[in-house]
Specification:
Blueprint lengths: L6 H7 L12 H16 L3 E6 L3 E3 L6 E8 L20 H10 L1 E8 L7 H11 L4 E7 L19 E9 L7 H8 L4 H10 L4 H9 L12 H20 L8 E8 L2 E8 L4 E8 L13 E5 L13 H17 L4 E8 L10 H11 L2 E5 L2 H8 L7 H7 L1 H17 L1
Parallel strand pairs: 4-6, 9-11
Antiparallel strand pairs: 1-5, 2-3, 3-4, 5-6, 7-8, 7-12, 8-11, 9-10
InterPro entries: Nre, Nre_C, Nre_N
Protein name: DNA repair protein
Family: Belongs to the Nre family.
Amino acid sequence: MMKLFNSKLCALCKGRKLLCGRPTCPILERFRVVKSVEQKINRREIFGSSPPSLFVGEYGYPKVRVGPLVPPIEGNTSHLDSPLKWENKTIKDVLYYRSLLVMGEMKADVNVRKSGRILEEVQELAMSVKPVDSEILLKRRPILKVLPSEFAPPVGPRAELLDFELTENPRIPRKTDYVVSDELKAEEAIMRLYNWGFDEYYIIRLLSAGLLGINKKLVPTRWSITAVQDTIGKKLREEILRYDTINEFELYFYEFLGNRYAVILMPETYAFELLEVWLKGSLFGSDEPEVIHDYEDFRGIKGYAEETTGAYYAARLSVLESLRWRRRQARIIVFREVTPKYYAPVGVWQIRVGVKKAMENPVGKFNTLQEALNELRKFLELELEKYLEKSWILRLRKQRTLDYYFNMM
């Protein structure tokens, strides 16, 4: 397969021959999305129903870009920013949704005490559980750029914000008011909202808007996603450590938006590992794909997941939720293969959803790990040995087995 995004290759192909080996041209696909929304957003004043949605950037921290996201559409627009409900959507759908959300951006200090009226309005928007009719006035017509990000869904058109106003009262639950106004640490606030059944991305929005914690600050959207998923994951890990282990080796599999997710559960004490590979021809792939990984034992990961980054916390949370529901613990390995079909990164939510769907799609139960691995081969494109060489859990298990037999001599 030829090298992707080579200027000469693209010039020869012009998106028609698909010489890069992908099922669709990512350049033309994004161009089509831009053209489909161009007329709807080609103005300085945008009035519509925000899903509700906002974005907080990280560049320049502690002075960051922040602003509401408003589409030129009225009515129920919640589907435009509901990542955990996009399980039946395509990459093109997601790019279209994000391209409709116009961001009016302004510079703000992360210390919300220094904020003015506009940021207060943005915070009210963040607390709503229903779309809110809103109006933004921009300095110029918005520019649409779809930037690659493995964390947040791609940000759509944007321009400097002159004014923002909610034109109706937001629907704010009493429990949200209680959590926001009370002197709770961010971790406690996150868990209360989660256990009360609030949507994960609603909690992320509150954290980003500087509404959670004792010393309230704006938190970049990308950081908020990882912080919320990590916080919930840690608490669920503490809970499942009290449960008995599963009884057999279990294998699960699901393919979602060009990503293959396989999960092996072992009847042993808790540990978690994510093994990830970008296959040849994929967005960040190479001619010789390499497996990257991060892992933890029952004490949790040391520091930050440096190799798999945000994907680690998203995948871990989906498996932990499944085990919590079963009131069981297990040793966990998640395999992620990114194929050329994943032609535009749409955010870490797809990992969250992909692994969650995998846990709802069992392949089978096995008496031995070897039987489970033999079945796993059928679902992977990269040879299994590449994963086995890298896996901390499988190396550790092999070493313990040798130690056991040695001590029996």
